Structure formats: structure tokens, C-alpha cells
Amino acid sequence: MAETIIKVDLTKSAYENEDIHNRWHPDIPMAKMVKPGDDFIIECVDWTGGQIDSSDDASDVRDVDLSQVHFLSGPVGIEGAEPGDLLEVDIMDIGTFAESNWGFNGLFSKQNGGGFLTDYYPEAQKTIWDFNGIYTKSRHIPGVEFAGLMHPGLIGCLPSKEMLKEWNEREKELYDTEPDRVPALATLPYAETAHMGRMKPEAAKEAAKEAARTVPPREHGGNCDIKDLTKGSKIYFPVYVKDAGLSVGDLHFSQGDGEITFCGAIEMAGWIHLRVNLIKDGMRKYAIKNPVFKPSVMTPHYNDYVVFEGISVDGDGKQHYLDVNVAYQQACLNAIEYLKKFGYSGEQVYSLLGTAPMQGHISGVVDIPNASATLWVPTGIFDFDINPNAEGPTKQVDDSVKVPTAPDLK
């Protein structure tokens, strides 16, 4: 049996655990050390550190303190790792805790995080998902059950000092182009809620002023939210500091491509079993500056889909030039309007698109002026037929079931 090298206690604050951190900084000390070839288990709290409960009250999603996230377990140092190497990480297994066999999805308030469709769904909402082995369903979305594809939403290595400086400069430059935008264009360093792992208090206080937030993916990996990185997959991470400093968190039970609600997967606490190896000088050998992934042979076998197309013309009819973001947004909105015909609310479908094993594709980026993106909705997750037919759609679900909503505080 692999050793559990980092443990968490879900009854305690993540700030009490020195093997957890919520910022990226090259000076965060290694929580544990392992050797190439070792495999080990790491336990993780959910990305918010337990701020969301399993109730039908969405005020916790509305009021969540996003300056605290993400809480990551690590960093784990790998003996012999040096800048320029590639860290090879095998995901051996992922699982839930018996005492926490549920997860949540949040539609975040536009005033606090937002999401891909926040202009259409600006209020905070949540759905709770109960796990039964590999399957999940929600009391807030009737008529649906599907197999999950558990994966880490966030995994990566520590940045170098030079890389941290580059991140902060380029993100501040973007932020300053529209500093009053809601949601913000970038999440800049914020020392007040930083948790710097095993770093000494005085050093942590200073480092937190420049430590990078964990919200976006970057060159080192980070918050990539790739749903197919389940057990059996492999990741090659660029190494930027001595010992690499591998951290992981933000575990998901399932997710649709794009994680479109921002808190867009089924978020959970749990454990992950990893194995590490090194490819010396691998960054130069393979011309790698961002992680490279190999997906698992394991995936839910949904082979029949209804596919929705979107083009780069937004909801107001404005033409955009080959904008895949607008095109994918329109594909998602088209799917929402379609599935509303079966009795769902828009909020229920929005949550479902973020949690179920949806496939998102960039289908065309050369046919000016319209990019084409597609959203593939698996028909097998529903307990009724969603395919178009001559008779037309009929109500299939109980529309008295609602997604808990918390209006913004004025």
C-alpha cells in the first residue's frame, strides 16, 4: 500500500494545516520529500477549504471568500529535480472520503467571481451531488444520473522567482486596462488571506505580498481543469525550482469541458494517488514550456450525443472575428434553451453543463469571420429521450424542483 504523506482533517480549518498552501511562491518550503519512482497518496480539502455545505441554502456560494482559494496540498519535493527537468506524474487513483461522499457545483454571483455565462445568470446558485460508487445524481436536477470522471482540477509545480515576476507584471498590466470591471480581469496578489504552508511567519508575511493567486492556469500547470486527467493519465510538468515543488488540490468528481460555471465541476474533498519520475533536461530536449498530458484509457462510455453549435456572433447579434470564446458561449446557450423545453430551468441546465461529461470542441477557426465551437451533450445521462423527433419535445421533469438561489446583497 502506498503511504499517505499528506493528511487533512475536514473538521479543522485549512489554515491550521502546514502541509497546505493557497498561493504560488518559489520560497514555500517543501511539505514532504520523495524520490523518483516513489508513489504516494495525498489528501486534499475541497478548493474552498470547507466554505460550502450540503444544504439547500445558496448563501454560502454567494458569500464565499474567493481570496482564500485554492487550498493545495504540498508542495512535495522530488529529490534530484532541477530547473529544466520534466517531472513525470502518473495519476494512479483518485477517491472520495467515506465521511464526505458528496460534492457541490456553484453558479457564482457576478459580483463575486462570476462564470462563463454570468451576464445571463448573475445570481449565486448551487447544486448538491450525492456519490454512489462511480455514479452521481443531484436532488436539484431531476432525471439525470451519470458516471463521474474524478480528476484534479489543479496540479502543478512551484514557479521560479523570474516566472513569478513575469506573471505579476503581465496580469497587472491586463488588470489596469479596466480596473473597475466586474468580474475582475485578473486576481492580483492579496496578502491578507494567504496561507504559505511551512514558511516562517515573518517571511510568509513578506512573500504573500507578491505570491501569485491560484485562479488561472499558467506555464507551470496550475488550475487547468482538464476533465480527462483521471486515474491512468500522465502529466509532464516543467520544473522551475530545485526539488520541483509539486502541489495538488481542487479535486473534481466530474466536470464538463470548460468548467463553465467557474465553480463548474462537482467539487469535492478526497485523496489522490500519484507516482513521480524525472526526465533530466527534459524541457530543452522536448522544447516544452507548458505541461504535456497523456489521457487515461479510462473514460465514461457515452457514445451518443446531441451536438450544439455556436458561432462568433454574440447574444446581441454583434459580429466577432473568429472568437472561439463567443462561439462556445453561444453553443452552451443553445443547449440551455433546447433542454429547457423538457421542463428544466436555465439554471439547472447551466449547472448540468458544468458537471456532466460534456465534450467541448473548437470546430473551425479559419472561416472568416465566424469561428465555430460545439458542445456535445451525452444522451445517456438522461432517463428520457432528448433527441429531436417529429412530435416535438414534451415536459419530462418535475419543474417544482428548484436550484437554490441567493440573490446578491444590496
Keywords:
410 residues, alpha+beta, 7-stranded mixed β-sheet, 6-stranded mixed β-sheet, 6 helices, 14% helix, globular
Structure, explained:
The protein is globular. Strands 2, 3, 5, 11, 12, 13 and 15 form a 7-stranded mixed β-sheet that branches. Helix content is 14%, strand content 30%. It has 6 helices and 22 strands. Strand 12 and strand 13 form a beta hairpin. The chain has 410 residues and is α+β, with helices and mostly antiparallel strands.
Largest sheet composition: 7 strands, mixed
The succession of helices and strands, N to C, reads: EEEEHEEEEEEEHHEEEEEEHEEHHEEE
From the helix content, strand content and strand pairing, which structural class follows?
alpha+beta
What distance separates the N and C termini?
53 Å
Q: Strand portion, in percent?
A: 25-35%
Topology, number of strands: 22
Average pLDDT confidence is 96
Query: What portion of residues is helical?
Result: 10-25%
Which blocks of ≥5 consecutive residues have pLDDT under 50? none
Helix count, per DSSP?
A: 6
Radius of gyration: 21 Å
**Global outline:** globular
